[in-house]
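idk why but the lab printer keeps eating my pages so im just putting this in chat instead. protein + EPU:
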Amino acid sequence: MDAILIKGSTEPLRGTVRISGAKNAALPILCATLLSDGASRLRNVPKLRDIDTTAALLRFLGRNVVVDAPEITVDPGSCSRPEAPYELVKQMRASVLVLGPLVARYGRAKVSLPGGCAIGARPIDQHLKGLEAMGCTIHLDRGYVFAEGPDGGGRLRGAEVVFDMPTVTGTENIMMAAALARGRSTIVNCAREPEIEELGRILNKMGAVVDGAGTDVIHIEGASELAPFDHAIIPDRIEAGTYMVAAAMIEGSDVLIEGAELHDLEALVAKLRMANVNVTSEGRNVRVGRTGPLKPVNITTGPHPGFPTDMQAQLMVLMCLARGESVISETIFENRFMHVPELQRMGADIVLRGHVAVVNGVDELYGASVMATDLRASASLVVAGIAAREETEVRRVYHIDRGYERIEEKFKGMGVNIERVVGAHS
Ligand code: EPU
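predcted complex ->
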């Protein structure tokens, strides 16, 4: 297994970093190709392990997928079994995003339940409830969801679906199902992430009529057939946010982040500014730096446009160096503090009380061997290593490779002393 080695420094970060396409936009859009019988082309797709897993799943489903980064084409091929096996779903829980498209397109689907994951239980009851409202019969057997369209595999019916809580992949699954359903669907209490707006754009390009994506109520008029599409994926706001935090770690830093949409990062930017970080928009780029000491800020994660849970670990790392106490509350996932014990080993002063972490800033962090079993937690440890004294080794880098394209090269471009050690551990 690879490791990442970072030699921490007090040297300010300088330079430019270009943001890749958004992982969490590309995953549902790749699954949306299942809704059409034509060849679709996605551009600006990040080169990541989760994208490879999705490509493998589409191939298993009979699609001809050609990956020529940053482009992917998906040709229809023929689907002999609308089925997502455990072997693929267990590698990436977003594989559940094929459920809506498969049952809408083929009248039936067999998809492995994703199971729990490192950050929490993450049930999919809302996805299933939505499909049932559209006339699906659902039964669970030996770890699989079996879904069948009305009257033994017929076309789904448009329906009103009211979610108990905003769910990102749940909203996406039901949007894709509704795009091929007969009649109009109304989805209430939707997640409002920019990635959902992006999926709405795709479904409109394909011929469904989607209105309200990005708000909490989405209306969709289904089409009997959907066309293929050609689309460039939006930039990854969480990758951008991660580099913004990194650029704030060391006083005197000044980094230009290319392709970051400030509009999609408002909650993070507000907190960074309160923490004494300079964030300025320069066209489609963002300049981030810091000239004075870090001030502590409190954060509570929430559904978009609230503070993203996917940025909680990184912001906590920043608060480890602030002058004073910050209170960080995680409200989305019950187990998303795996970075805390690792940061404590690096000298951070953090007290955990259930879903709340109280961070007291320290003067400096120390390098250590660390690891985490969650993508964002792992990335936060790299960010911590940048400003830590001496060397930090981040193990289990495959988690980072799920969601950050060429992270070590991008940090090198900002002057960080970082390298990947291939096969460092068995
Ligand atoms: N929930 C349910 N039932 C459901 C669905 C969700 O109880 O049927 C709960 C979850 O347990 C959680 C909350 O609702 O407490 C929100 O979960 P959501 O469904 O929105 O999460 P997700 O769709 O599984 C996506 C991202 C995550 C991101 C979360 C929250 C993708 C592929 N994944 O997950 O991204 O953290 O939304 O914003 O879009 C990551 O990229 O590292 C990552 C984990």
